[in-house]
Specification:
Blueprint lengths: L1 H19 L3 E6 L26 E7 L25 E7 L15 E5 L7 E7 L16 E4 L3 E2 L11 E6 L8 E2 L3 H21 L1
Parallel strand pairs: 1-8
Antiparallel strand pairs: 1-4, 2-3, 2-5, 5-6, 5-7, 6-9
């Protein structure tokens, strides 16, 4: 029943955005999927309206270099762009957003974002067990675990006149990629290492 109602909501969302003519990515949990914690059994906590109470989510454009971030730390900034990578954060959400108010919000979400990436672009979804410490700033959680979906491919026309709509729905087979969030000190070390390597390359020239 819960998934049926969510599917009906998705259909309404798609028709609404198609009417507006915006190039849109609708992303969420598929009809048979739930976002699980690292124990692969407990649903990630969600909330219908409060982003500070639901697991943090990122929709990420994968640049030409592929998933090239060290521990995905280039995704840990609000812009999603560092000098060492070319991935980009397209949108953020939280577990529970877009779900039907009279149904439990845990483990599910449904979000949408306008995009301008060309046809054939690759995207992934990163989901966290814990909430963002500052959702409005796009900050990632500092504790808990995160998972990364398999790659989605954009097939919709990014031209606004094309009324393109992509649907990226996480399936139940993608919860094995959970890993611990790097400690802030570890992230800093990666950054220092990147700077040192860049300086060494410049001195050799």
């Amino acid at each position: 029943m819960k998934k049926l109602v969510c599917a009906m909501g998705l259909a309404l969302m798609l028709s609404a955005f198609s009417a507006k003519g915006y190039p849109t990515i609708v992303w969420g949990t598929g009809p048979s999927a739930d976002l699980l914690q690292s124990d692969n059994a407990t649903l990630i906590t969600g909330n219908h309206t409060d982003s500070s109470l639901g697991g943090f989510l990122q929709l990420i454009f994968v640049g030409a270099n592929g998933l090239d971030a060290v521990n995905y730390t280039e995704w840990d900034t609000p812009t999603g762009l560092l000098s060492s990578g070319d991935d980009q954060i397209i949108g953020t959400s939280w577990v529970g957003e877009g779900t039907v108010m009279f149904l439990p919000p845990n483990g599910d979400f449904l979000a949408e974002n306008i995009h301008s990436m060309p046809i054939g672009s690759q995207f992934v979804i990163r989901f966290f067990e814990t909430a963002s410490p500052n959702f409005g700033s796009g900050l990632v959680p500092t504790s808990g675990n995160y998972g990364i979906s398999s790659t989605f491919l954009s097939t919709a026309d990014p031209d606004p006149a094309g009324e393109g709509i992509d649907q990226f729905m996480i399936s139940s087979s993608l919860f094995a990629n959970l890993g611990p969030i790097p400690e802030p000190g570890t992230v800093a070390l990666f950054g220092i290492g990147a700077v040192v390597l860049a300086l060494r390359k410049r001195l050799k020239k």
